[in-house]
Amino acid sequence: MTDVIDDRDIERALVVMAHPDDVDFGSAGTVAVWTDRGIEVTYLMVTDGDAGGFDDGMTRQEMAALRREEQRAAAKAVGVTDVRFLGYPDGRVEATLELRRDIARVIRQVRPDRVLMPSPERNYERIHPSHPDHRAVGSAALDAVYPDARNPYAFPELREEGLEAWTVREVWLNGGPVADHYVDVTEVFGRKLTALRSHASQVAHVPDLEGMLRGWMGANARAAGLPEGHLAEGYHVVSTA
């Protein structure tokens, strides 16, 4: 099991996700804990979520604009104000050199100690976290952390932009087949729920969103050995220093 860096030693964190709402389903509680502890958190969404939703009367451009606004509102609920979008096409993300460069650029801009991202591995126990966009973003983001962002000679155009190399100390993978670290988010569950409900275009049809979340997160808490009634989010933590 990897030793996890104490939050008191983390100044900045970057969350890289495929779609608006990904961070809120899996990690909004964790982000709320971090911001409450004074960690500065930035969100990077690779797509605008233009292939999401259920409204045939809305154009894909309108859906993308709506989902960007929903994500900004959700971020605000957990203390995040810096929300960035790369604008890749939803449902067609691949772990290309271009995507690695674009993520490495933001890593060098933000200079985070910790990066949270989707797992690049498929989870056969729960298929939904293993959307191909999620796995592609996880693969590209992990490569952007190591070796791209820290290698001053990778993507020389980034140095030409004035962005010097940066070494991320730790990566947190979400949604994969392995979890070896859990965050107790019981006290901030209400904020997580508010964040997720901000994505009305995606979750308004869910009959018992709170119950669904409590089911998942209660199982995480039990796996973490927390007392009955607690809620947790789980990760595979990787040292990348």
Description of the molecule:
40% of the residues lie in helices and 18% in strands. It is built from nine helices and seven strands. A seven-stranded mixed sheet has the order 3-2-1-4-5-7-6, with helices on both faces. The longest helix is centred in the first third of the chain and has 18 residues, at 60-77. The radius of gyration is 17 Å and the shape is globular. The two termini are 16 Å apart. The model has no long low-confidence stretch (mean pLDDT 95).
Q: Which percent range describes the beta-strand content?
A: 15-25%
Question: Total helix count?
Answer: 9
Distance between the termini: 16 Å
Global morphology: globular
- Computed CA radius of gyration, to the nearest angstrom: 17 Å
Q: How many structural domains?
A: 1
| Rounded average pLDDT | 95
Name the CATH class.
Answer: Alpha Beta
- Helix/strand-derived category reads alpha/beta
- Biggest sheet strand order reads 3-2-1-4-5-7-6
Q: Specify the biggest β-sheet.
A: 7 strands, mixed
State the CATH superfamily name: LmbE-like
How many individual β-strands? 7
CATH topology: Rossmann fold
- Which CATH-level-2 architecture? 3-Layer(aba) Sandwich
Residues in helices, as a percent range: 40-55%
Task: Considering the chains and any ligands shown, give keywords for the structure.
hydrolase activity, acting on carbon-nitrogen (but not peptide) bonds, in linear amides, Rossmann fold, alpha/beta, 241 residues, N-acetylglucosaminyl deacetylase, LmbE family
